[in-house]
């Protein structure tokens, strides 16, 4: 019964994408497609297989993921630390709030020219941009999480005369761990987006550069293969992080809007 | 209360002044070459010069226009499509999974595809902005409709409301908080994609201007452009939060 229901929803979910792909293939075959902008699904699959086997896709994926992971770890780590400090100390919050609010809306892509000038091309510049992009959201989320920690726990820490380090490790961090993970999850998806954007705009490495080059070389099948792959990487990443969140914090993930 | 917020403001301004002073000290001491990193006064001079008679004002207008058109297009299409898909349980079952599958795709990855179809043109940039900003609104509308209190659907059936009336009178208001939040996200995405599009397609605007400034090592102009972009982002999100508060006043009672 359950299997039948599952099959039922699966069938309905799969109808649209499968139908579209089939229609595209039929249209391409019927018109004997020869184009600089379009490619038939079969050609795209062949192109994907080609870049998968010659190793260029693996290298590009690794470059992008490495930059995204490094930037994400640095940005979320630093941002969460600042956010915790702001949440714990009113005075720090009062001091820094205005400056942060003024710096936060600067779009990260505006930093591409600056970092290009200061650091040149390469992984370093990409990581710096991703780090700055992840910094502000992490600050805001961590600060909000600390402010929502049960006030009794803070009273307990005061009564026990815990030092700052002990208070951080024993009270605050365990209490906000679920929110920190959620912040990491959001940042990971966003870091991939920023990484691909930087690569498309400026940095000659990774998946973004690959798709840009495929377009400029007028190889539409390869371009769509890259697009498909980028989508798949993003999708797998979100799937993985969601599964991890459900495993580690089963109570927390449930009520959260998707 | 008033006194408290005054204290907050004073402390905030103090840090801001210190921040700018620190920036000045770093550049005056030439820790970083002034070719790459201008001091605050040079940035300010470039800002004033560019805005009074210089090209900066026209470029700002260009970028803001691009961002707004793309955003409006995305909002209209997103809410409309979202309403059509969200109102019908069957359409949701068929279409929503595909949309969820497409959602994690970085919008900027569509830029090469858009270039292949439309070339380096203003339409290309507009399509990229609209496509990128579409997702949050579309999905928020669908989720908002799906999360509507089921009783309300029953009420609408009892009252014999037409489908259009259900959307207009019940579903849209109840999905409003989610839609408004996504409008703000959409505006941020629009600004980012407008800048990226201008950089890549060399269309007039701040994105192209800051890229050109960095290539010819006019760092003061570059920083002036970044300051303006930050101001655009700040104003946009502030205006939308204000609109959000006004439009959702009726909700405050329940919360």
From TrEMBL, chain A:
Its main location: membrane. One of its GO terms (cellular component) is plasma membrane. It comes from the Bacteria. It holds the Pfam family BPD_transp_1. Residues 61-245 form the ABC transmembrane type-1 domain. Residues 1-23 form the signal peptide. GO terms for biological process: transmembrane transport. The chain crosses the membrane at residues 67-90, 102-121, 127-146, 183-202, 223-241. InterPro entries: MetI-like, MetI-like_sf. Belongs to the binding-protein-dependent transport system permease family. This is ABC transporter permease. It comes from Rhizobium straminoryzae. The lineage of its organism: Bacteria, Pseudomonadati, Pseudomonadota, Alphaproteobacteria, Hyphomicrobiales.
TrEMBL record, chain B:
The chain crosses the membrane at residues 68-89, 101-120, 126-145, 178-201, 222-240. The lineage of its organism: Bacteria, Pseudomonadati, Pseudomonadota, Alphaproteobacteria, Hyphomicrobiales. Residues 60-240 form the ABC transmembrane type-1 domain. One of its GO terms (biological process) is transmembrane transport. Its main location: membrane. Keywords: Cell membrane, Membrane, Transmembrane, Transmembrane helix, Transport. It comes from Rhizobium straminoryzae. InterPro entries: MetI-like (IPR000515), MetI-like_sf (IPR035906). Belongs to the binding-protein-dependent transport system permease family. It is a multi-pass membrane protein. It is found in: Cell membrane. Pfam families: BPD_transp_1 (PF00528). GO terms for cellular component: plasma membrane. It comes from the Bacteria. This is ABC transporter permease. PROSITE patterns: ABC_TM1.
């Amino acid at each position: 019964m359950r299997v039948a229901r599952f099959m039922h929803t699966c069938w309905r979910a799969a109808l649209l994408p499968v139908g579209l792909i089939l229609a595209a293939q039929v249209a391409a075959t019927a018109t004997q497609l020869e184009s600089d902008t379009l490619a038939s699904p079969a050609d795209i699959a062949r192109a994907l297989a080609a870049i998968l086997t010659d190793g260029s896709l693996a290298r590009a994926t690794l470059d992008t993921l490495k930059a995204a992971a490094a930037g994400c770890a640095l940005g979320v780590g630093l941002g969460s630390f600042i956010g915790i400090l702001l949440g714990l100390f009113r005075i720090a919050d009062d001091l820094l709030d205005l400056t942060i609010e003024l710096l936060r809306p600067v779009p990260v892509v505006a930093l591409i020219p600056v970092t290009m000038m200061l650091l040149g091309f390469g992984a370093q510049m990409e990581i710096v941009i991703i780090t700055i992009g992840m910094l502000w959201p992490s600050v805001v989320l961590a600060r909000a999480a600390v402010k929502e920690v049960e006030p009794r726990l803070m009273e307990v820490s005061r009564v026990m005369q815990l030092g700052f380090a002990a208070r951080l490790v024993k009270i605050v961090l365990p209490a906000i761990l679920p929110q920190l993970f959620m912040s990491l999850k959001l940042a990971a998806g966003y870091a991939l987006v920023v990484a691909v954007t930087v690569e498309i705009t400026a940095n000659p490495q990774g998946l973004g550069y690959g798709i840009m080059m495929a377009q400029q070389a007028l190889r539409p099948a390869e371009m769509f293969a890259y697009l498909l792959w980028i989508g798949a990487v993003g999708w797998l990443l979100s799937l993985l992080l969601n599964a991890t969140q459900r495993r580690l914090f089963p109570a927390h993930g449930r009520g959260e809007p998707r | 209360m008033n006194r408290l917020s005054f204290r907050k403001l004073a402390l905030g301004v103090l840090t801001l002044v210190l921040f700018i002073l620190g920036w000045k000290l770093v550049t005056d001491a030439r820790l970083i070459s002034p070719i790459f990193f201008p001091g605050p006064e040079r940035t300010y001079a470039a800002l004033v010069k560019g805005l009074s008679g210089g090209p900066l004002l026209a470029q700002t207008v260009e970028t803001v226009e691009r961002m707004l058109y793309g955003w409006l297009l995305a909002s209209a299409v997103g809410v409309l499509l979202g309403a059509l898909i969200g109102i019908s349980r069957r359409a949701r079952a068929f279409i929503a999974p595909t949309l969820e599958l497409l959602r994690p795709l970085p919008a900027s990855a569509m830029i090469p595809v858009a270039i292949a179809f439309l070339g380096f043109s203003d339409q290309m940039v507009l399509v990229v902005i609209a496509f990128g900003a579409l997702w949050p609104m579309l999905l928020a509308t669908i989720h908002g409709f799906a999360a509507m209190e089921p009783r309300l659907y029953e009420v609408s059936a009892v009252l014999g409301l037409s489908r259009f009336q259900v959307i207009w009178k019940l579903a849209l208001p109840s999905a409003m908080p989610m839609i408004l939040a996504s409008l703000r996200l959409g505006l941020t995405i629009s600004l980012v994609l407008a800048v990226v599009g201008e950089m890549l397609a060399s269309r007039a605007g701040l994105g192209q201007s800051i890229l050109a400034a960095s290539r010819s090592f006019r760092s003061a102009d570059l920083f002036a452009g970044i300051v303006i972009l930050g101001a655009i982002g700040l104003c946009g999100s502030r205006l939308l939060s204000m609109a959000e508060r006004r439009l959702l006043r009726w909700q405050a009672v329940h919360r």
